[in-house]
Prior knowledge:
The protein has 268 residues and is α+β, with helices and mostly antiparallel strands. It folds into 2 domains: 15-177, Alpha-Beta Plaits, CATH 3.30.70; 186-267, no CATH class. The chain contains 11 helices and 4 strands. The two termini are 17 Å apart.
Amino acid sequence: xxxxxxxxRIDVDGAWHHVMNxxxxxxxxxxxxxxxxRFLELVGEGCERTGIRVGAYCLMGxxxxxxxxxPDGGLSDFMHRLGSMYTRYINDRLDSDGPIFRSRFHSLLxxxxxxxxxxxxxxxxxxxDVRPPVALDQYRxxxxxxxxxxxxxxxxxSTSEVLAGHRGPGDYRRFVEGDQGPTGSIAWAIETAxxxxxxxxxxxxxxxxxxxxxxxxRSGDLASPELEAAAAFPSRDARSDALRRVxxxxxxxxxxxxxAERALRLAT
Length: 268
């Protein structure tokens, strides 16, 4: 679990990041097709200005996800320009003012190949929550169509890094749409669950470790070898003591259980 406790917004040359933000108060930020088009135009303009690449994207009604590659750093500048210019566009169009996003963006450093492909899969599966349901490869506001169909690919979208871990578009489609789940997924699942819920609801120390222990507690006798390996208990007594402590935390912080259940779903 080396990634737990890693600071967000690490901005180094050559890094990839899973970036997301949502509307303030979970309000809608993409009201019309024109709004989606303008947001993606701004993404393209930012890429042209900075040399940043986008490996995946998905726009939902009240939030967005981007998989962003930064050959020369510059993530914060790219995201600040994108957020401020889109906010100005929406406020001008709706004759309103003030922030439309909840805060600064949130991001996770993507530091290995499994993490990269899991992040892309997660982003491309976001439309599964759309109602009425829509086929993933038909969802207009996701880059997934550009991976698995002949849909036009914007010049700023780079698919080669994600596809490098798969045997072509068909294999990637099976990975995204199938039931086999992500790979190397425990740390990724925990961090992604925290990314989704990063609104200050829980302030327990070492939250990532607490989520991992809660996952073990919720799994009971069905805990996977991957979960046990990630926890790396030095002894059975240490395991029993840790799970006893996390049961107490679950009793006083029910949100921790919600995070653990979400991480378990993401990891399988």
